[in-house]
Amino acid sequence: xxxxxxxxxxxxxxxxRWGDYPVTVLENPDGFVLFSVxxxxxxxVALVLSKxxxxxxxxRRALDASDAVFSKKINNEPVxxxxxxxxPLAAEFTEEGMGAALREAYDYLAKASLEGxxxxxxxxxxxxxxxxxxxxxxxxxxxxxxxxxxxALPLGADSDSKPVYAGERVTVFASRDERERSTLLRLxxxxxxLEGAPVLVLDECGFSxxxxxxxxxxPSGLVEPARRExxxxxxxxxxxxxxxxxxxxxxxxxxxxxATQIVALGALPASLDELASRLEEGAQxxxxxxxxxxxxxxxxxxxxLSYGPSNDAVKGFGNGTGVAYVELSQADSSLAAxxxxxxxxxxxxxxxxxxxxxxxxxxxxxxxxAELLAALPSKxxxxxxxxxxxxxxxxxxxxxxxxxxxxxxxxxxxPKGAKTRFTPRKTL
Length: 428
Hints:
Blueprint: E1 11-18, E2 21-27, E3 32-39, E4 44-56, H1 60-63, E5 68-74, E6 77-85, E7 89-92, H2 95-109, E8 118-119, H3 125-132, H4 135-141, E9 154-157, E10 163-165, E11 170-174, H5 178-194, E12 199-203, E13 216-218, E14 221-223, E15 227-231, H6 245-251, H7 256-264, H8 272-280, H9 286-301, H10 312-315, E16 323-327, H11 333-342, E17 355-359, H12 367-374, E18 382-387, H13 395-398, E19 400-404, E20 410-413, E21 419-424
Parallel strand pairs: 11-18, 11-19, 12-16, 12-17, 15-16, 17-18
Antiparallel strand pairs: 1-2, 2-3, 3-4, 4-6, 4-7, 4-8, 5-6, 9-10, 9-21, 13-14, 19-20, 20-21
């Protein structure tokens, strides 16, 4: 590769092939390693920039913050090499195109560090040669990052220092203390953000910690996930057209005779005004007029929630990045949660499943909402659900769950009932 790239001089260490594509590995004096794969069919190049650190002995504290790890023996002593990597970048195979992509990756990694690790440019000659001098290891490592396909989110470690993960599809975080529960939910959300998965938080308890107001302070530096906060009635809305009529009538407290009239209409219209009008049109039955009158009352008291369609802001979050936060700690939060969840489009199959965090208030989880939550994995999402342990829900018995205990400990309970006691890691 003859290009004069920024942050050089770059020294070519390895050349080879990755499948059908040419691969080049270069290093610079600052301890950065650049992997490039030339995509000959479309004239482009894929780049991954890595910052390498050397560890001797125990490097477990650095593993979660590393994107790729491998080990070598030097004088019969194991040495670990941990890499912090940029995301794969696509660029034109030109000096200008590669230079622009490299600057973007360099800005991302410039402040990265791993506690206890020695930067590659400060390592001993034997350590540098072990890392840079083995083409076979390097080509195997080139585009290998910690697998996200398992979709397992680290929560802490057991007494033997073995990591404990959330369930791969659904995990219930059960605690009577809402603040304690929000801390456990945050652990799952942080882990998802660090692996590049988008996170949607529906928070009925109103804890600001779940909105991530500050950058995440990780061992490798600051991570600033894209952050969007939506207010119900301003940026996010209750779309009645996706809410079952029986669920709406039950949640809004209609008496049985009035609720029957609403259910008889079939699908709900887009607004409470239109719903009341349909109940009033040609209504001869007292029950229908009663339902219309109650709807008019609801229309006045719940106007701030702006009943109506348009949840475009959150429906496509699964194909984006960062965290989207919706605070639902007001009246009719279950209706709002149902509307927002029903608006979610199927997540794209890009290997990293988006995470939906739902922090539920109270001990009653409506059946229709529980069914909607249970269906999220089939649409490509993971679910971290915060519940009171006394909630009457099939979630408590059918899915992996995390139960808080005394002295800062917690229990992970598998879907089959096996318990593992662990210490939750500190939030970032």
